[in-house]
Specification:
Blueprint: H1 13-46, H2 49-57, H3 59-80, H4 84-115, H5 123-149, H6 152-160, H7 162-182, H8 187-219, H9 228-237
């Protein structure tokens, strides 16, 4: 009896190991960034510039990991000539690693506000930053879990979390604009706050990208053509 062909099953066990190691590298990057984000929120809440500085210095490690992933992707393409699902996996890993590296840059920008000791003494700002930050951590965890399991449904659910992040982001923008109107002499300090809030929002966007890569990995559908809401309904209907 002829055995059915299975994707991601290769004659070379070493090739399987290479692909698994590639995927693991992205998850390791993501795990480090999640901890970076948690430490960032601690630095903000407790006003710890030294912790913020350590978080920023750790970004060099993230940059190095992204470069290693990129080089390994190029090596596998050159030596293994991957096709079909394997090629999609390599492409997904490369794109995800790039977005994760940019998340690291966004985290550095957030910590600059704490390092400079320039964060205004504002209850609404502290509450808002912690709110959006905790939502970011939750979205990062959901995104990484979806990537690890290549789970379309989990990816779309994580993707939907960005709408709540955008809502908090817009509220913070409005409140900050009011502060600038009321205290124009402090405009430069509040402009730094705007850039910090924007960095939080950008992390949500990059998590969305990774969720869309998961969908591409499973279906081969161009991520720009994905209707996440439509596909969530389909997946929930199919159980």
């Amino acid at each position: 009896m002829k055995r059915p062909f299975q994707l991601n099953t290769h004659i070379s066990a070493k090739y399987n190991q290479e692909l698994e190691a590639l995927k693991h590298s992205v998850l390791t990057m993501g795990g480090l960034l999640e901890q970076q984000m948690v430490n960032t929120l601690i630095a903000i809440e407790e006003k710890l510039p030294n912790l913020a500085e350590r978080v920023s210095l750790n970004d060099a490690k993230i940059d190095g990991m992204e470069q290693q992933v990129e080089q390994e992707c190029m090596r596998i393409i050159a030596t293994r000539n991957p096709a079909a699902s394997d090629l999609r996996l390599v492409m997904t890993v490369a794109k995800a690693a790039n977005d994760l590296e940019r998340i690291g840059d966004d985290i550095v920008r957030i910590n600059r506000l704490v390092q400079s000791k320039g964060m205004p003494d504002s209850d609404f700002l502290l509450a808002g930053l912690l709110d959006i930050g905790n939502r970011i951590v939750s979205m990062m965890r959901g995104t990484l879990d979806a990537f690890a399991r290549q789970d379309e449904k989990a990816a779309i659910i994580a993707h939907k979390q960005d709408s709540d992040i955008d809502r908090v982001y817009k509220k913070l923008l409005e409140q900050t604009a009011e502060e600038i109107k009321s205290n124009p002499e402090e405009i430069y300090m509040w402009m730094d706050v705007l850039w910090t809030v924007r960095s939080f929002e950008r992390i949500g966007d990059r998590c969305k990208n990774i969720c869309e890569y998961v969908f591409f990995l499973n279906s081969g559908t161009n991520r720009k053509k994905i209707s996440m809401k439509k596909n969530l309904k389909r997946l929930l209907k199919n159980g």
